[in-house]
Specification:
With 561 residues, this protein is mostly beta strands. The chain is built from three helices and 43 strands. Strands 2, 3, 5, 7, 10, 12, 13, 14, 41, 42 and 43 form an eleven-stranded mixed beta sheet that branches. It has a six-stranded antiparallel beta sheet with strand order 1-4-6-11-8-9, with no helix packed on it. Strands 24-23-22-21-26 form a five-stranded mixed beta sheet. Strand 12 and strand 13 form a beta hairpin. The chain is elongated, with a radius of gyration of 25 Å. The relative contact order is 0.11. The N terminus is likely disordered.
């Protein structure tokens, strides 16, 4: 993101061809002159199913109050037939700084002018609005684009503000005030509908409204179906214990459209346990196309999971590790399977200080030898990383020894030599903890990046996700000859903002600086998975109950360095 100030001279002549002109009219025009325009370039995808999508910010500085202003814009990229509306909004200003905060989710205060996409003809259109309230000095504005559901998510929205004008000011030209934003889909949004199902019968028990959603996970089946999982948080955005179910939504067209949200694990299927179930992780068994989802069921007593009893699997005082699976592309799901006693290994003295053991969250993996692995975390006397795995396609499950130098939420990837890397959130913040194992977690060693503190990944005390791609026979269009590449996603900042994709070609010894894909403040969790030969899918949290999906070309991530 860059800030540019454009102090421009008056220009004469007619409007530039191939532009959209946004005008605001008033019965009593004032005599304001534009003194300066600061343009804020942003990285914010334009989301289908969302009304306000800021693509460019401006601070228009006037020498006195004004009620009329116009902007000329070039519109490109996606065909205008897929644009519902282009609008200019007055921006919400931070009370303390008196400016727009770029590290939070931008919000509009008032609509100043708008134009329907159908009125954009050959790049030219006009809109008129009344009663525009612009003040002397700073006027922070957003240009927003609303898309139709059919807008192709592989395309971009391109928009450039070329000119600005008040009634008494001749046209002011702006140079290089352009924006190019990728297109995505809001899979969930505040107060979205949910079909709560009894798992195997598929009987809809009731239709509910979930105020919030969180904790994304995602896989793509061998038939190309994208299966996204997440928490339905019905009443508030808080964690377990609460009224929370694990849900899924699927896409059969590469992420363009999504099915209704249904539950796959709900508290009603957990008699004697249920005080909410959530924090899902998902994996695909490559050998049989079975999808597995793991969830954490809160203790029956309702007390927080960090108070789970050490060395116990009793559902009255310990969080429960539960699984469900689907053999039909995520349409129906099995009854929950409780594997808490199996993975806590109660007869093993090594586990006597293990309190709550649960999944990632986010994604698990199917190793090349067929082993199914969920990354896990142990909350007990201290926080530690762990693996939960099955070597018989999910018939039985067990756990590894603890990675004692690990933190809490974890993500796992297979390295080029078959070793596993566990990358964990660290409660102290700053940098992530990383361990490697060549024996499914019987022994652990700190990764070289942790030992040397070179190449360690930044974190703001938040979940992260990584995935390995084995590029045999040119399976993926990576734009590199590397046969093994890792991708990583998290907030690349000191707070939960600046969602970024990084890659590594050396088994995580070093990472690229990264490709910023959304700068806004957010809840920070994400899931990534290869969608097809060309695209990495990114399923991530926004704010206020939104979960977003975008597709990013592998080449773009790698070329970003």
């Amino acid at each position: 993101m860059k800030d540019r100030s454009f102090i421009t001279k008056c220009l004469t002549g007619c409007a530039t061809l191939g532009v959209v002109s946004l005008m605001a009219l008033s019965a009593s025009p004032l005599q304001a002159e534009i003194e300066e325009i600061d343009v804020r370039e942003v990285t914010i995808p334009v989301m289908i199913r969302k009304d306000f999508n800021p693509v460019l910010g401006m601070n228009v500085k006037l020498d006195q109050a004004e009620t009329e202003i116009s902007f000329a814009m070039k519109v490109g990229g996606v065909n205008p037939q897929f644009i519902e509306e282009i609008a200019v909004y007055k921006a919400v200003i931070d009370d303390k700084s008196g400016a727009v905060r770029d590290n939070v989710d931008p919000k509009p205060e008032a609509l100043l002018g708008a134009i329907a996409g159908s009125d954009v003809r050959k790049g030219r259109a006009m809109i008129k609005c009344e009663e525009v309230d612009l003040q002397e000095g700073d006027n922070h504005l957003w240009v927003s684009v609303k898309l139709k559901p059919e807008a192709p998510i592989e395309r971009f929205v391109e928009l450039e503000v070329t000119d600005a004008k008040t009634p008494t000011t001749k046209r002011f030209r702006l140079d290089d005030a352009a924006s190019k934003q990728r297109i995505g889909v809001a899979i969930t949004y505040p107060s979205f509908p949910v079909k709560v199902q009894k798992t195997e019968s598929r009987k809809v028990l009731e239709e509910r409204v979930s105020k919030f959603s969180r904790i994304p996970g995602m896989v793509v089946t061998k038939k190309g179906t994208i299966v996204a999982t997440f928490d339905n948080r019905y009443h508030h955005n808080g964690d377990l214990p609460a009224d929370i179910d694990v849900a899924v939504s699927t896409s059969r067209d590469g992420g363009q459209t999504w099915s209704d949200v249904i539950t796959c694990i709900n508290a009603r299927d957990l008699p004697g346990i249920g005080h909410g179930v959530g924090d899902p992780a998902i994996l695909l068994d490559e050998s049989n196309n079975r999808i597995w989802i793991a969830g954490l069921a809160a203790p029956k007593t309702g007390h927080p999971i960090w108070k789970s009893e050490l060395g116990s699997a009793d559902p009255s005082n310990c969080g429960q590790f539960v699984l469900t699976y689907s053999d039909d592309e995520g349409v129906t799901w099995s009854d929950p399977i409780n594997i808490t006693a199996d993975v806590k290994r109660l007869d093993d003295p090594d586990t006597k200080e293990w309190g709550c053991l649960f999944q990632g969250p986010g994604n698990g993996i199917c190793m090349r030898d067929g082993t199914l692995v969920f990354p896990g975390q142990i909350w007990g006397a201290k926080h530690m990383g762990v693996l939960v795995y099955s070597k018989d396609n999910g018939k039985t499950w067990t756990s590894s020894k603890a990675m004692e130098f690990g933190g809490s939420e974890s993500t796992v990837a297979e390295l080029s030599n078959g070793d596993l890397m566990l990358n964990t959130r660290e409660g102290a913040g700053g940098l992530r903890q990383v361990g490697v194992t060549d024996d499914l977690g019987e022994t652990w060693e700190k990764h070289d990046s942790v030992k040397s503190k070179k190449g360690q990944l930044r974190q703001p005390v938040c979940q992260a996700i990584m995935v390995s791609l084995f590029n045999e026979a040119g399976k993926y269009n990576l734009g590199t000859s590397a046969r093994h590449v890792m991708f990583f996603s998290n907030p690349n900042a000191g707070n939960r903002s600046k969602m970024t994709l990084k890659y590594s070609r050396d088994n995580g010894d070093s990472w690229s600086d990264g490709l910023l894909y959304d700068q806004r403040g957010c809840m920070g969790y994400s899931a990534i998975y290869p969608i097809d030969k060309n695209y990495l899918g990114v399923f991530y949290e926004g704010q206020h109950g939104y979960l977003y999906f975008i597709k990013v070309p592998y080449r773009e991530i790698i070329e970003a360095r």
